[in-house]
Amino acid sequence: MSELGSLGFLAIACACTGLLWVLWRWYAVPMGTLAYVDDITGYANRRLLLRHLKKRRHQWRKAPGFCAVMVVDLDNFKQVRPAQGYAWGGRLLQQVAHRMQSVLQSGDFLAREDGDCFVVVPQARWSDHGQASQAMWQQANQLQDVLRTPFVLDGQEIYLSACIGITVVDAQADASIDVLMQALAALSQAKAQGRNKVCFFDEQERQSLQNKVGLQTDLRHVLERQQLQLYFQPQVNIAGHVMGAEVLLRWTHPERGMVPPLDFISLAEESGFILRLGQWVLDQSCAQLKAWDAHPVLGGLQLSVNVSARQFLQPGFVDMVRSCVEKHQIVPNSLMLELTESVMLEYGDEVIKTMHGLRTLGVGLSLDDFGTGYSSFTHLSRLPLNQIKVDKMFMHGVEQGGHNSVIVQTLIHMAHNLGLEVVAEGVETTLQRDYLHGKQCSLYQGYLFSKPVSLEAFEALVLAQTPHNESVAL
Ligand code: C2E
Ligand code: MG
Ligand code: MG
Fold it and tell me: What is the pTM of this model?
């Protein structure tokens, strides 16, 4: 009896397990599948899209090439649907999805991301960025064409259009990028331009933005990390003697190497950090002048320091220069401040007042990059300047008698009439030098004499000069 009882129990247990298995096959598996299917279109939903993207990224990483993701968003779906109801809208989205599928390549993945927004992940992989972009552009146009053909629902014609955002990524290098986010960002750009637009995610723009933000953050720490250095570019007179130098900043970045000032001065100006930076350069330059002070050769050198607009226009700039000169006990006229034309043109009388304040201190003032702005003779005559620096852009072919020689002659003539010293910037050849010499230019600066160099190299260069030394003699 007990044996019969246990057999019965076993039979019931088996029957229950069988029933459970049947139920699981009939109910749970389709439910699992349904979790990945868009209930309106029958294509993949967002959940499956994310899974698919994860899988594809894994495959992309295995071989070099370029891959893409495209987001297609209907322009006017939200306006047409409310009048017709939810179910009607669903039937329209089904047709949209079928039409899209009809122009996709086999293996391309289509999903409805949300609302009237679809995502295409092409199966193809291209060997270069240009090829990938071209193929995606063509596919986007095809999709737009097929969606523009009127839809017919319940005998009614419906006109749609779509905006498309595309991102093309380097399969291996950009492995960590959120491609969907990039394609959506491109879509927003397309939408901002109007209906029926296609936009590519601008990788270069993203990189330059990222680069800029990175540099700006690093820039804040340059002083305490001691990554800045003053370089010196000699200025020589007609006899070829080094009379002084322009101080030019150099930033040695631990990863990027030498960052040129043109890449970071404007960033420092934007963030306001230029005020601390400029003060540091001025302080270091004054300290250097003091260190040379008692030396028989280096003692008489003059240093020209660039001053940015923001720095020059800050309240108390004259006092700051005064305290620097007094702190280091330097002869004020051994310091020349270089300003650009734009500062003087834009800020008028306030600037002239500051310039007079500086001249009263005994500090020299130079107009940098002269000729690139629009200073008139009358304007220039109002400014308490000591010197002008003719911009290097006019040096190209100056000796050949073309436009540049006419401009340079006029600038030098104008400066001489105003009693100003003239420095020629960017002198690279002996022909340029000889031409300028003939026009009575007083000082010369450029690669012909030396590139900007470190303090040690500059001092060596000055100390090595003799009247017969060709490297510095004219
Ligand atoms: P800038 O003041 O006009 O300096 C002259 C620039 O011309 C320097 O570029 C110099 O290296 C370059 N140069 C000199 N001779 C030649 C030549 O023969 N041929 C050519 N092609 N170039 C020559 P750098 O050092 O890259 O500096 C660029 C600019 O960055 C400077 O132009 C200046 O506006 C700014 N800058 C540099 N240091 C400072 C600084 O301490 N403060 C501020 N506010 N600006 C600075
Ligand atoms: Mg300069
Ligand atoms: Mg210049």
Answer: 0.65
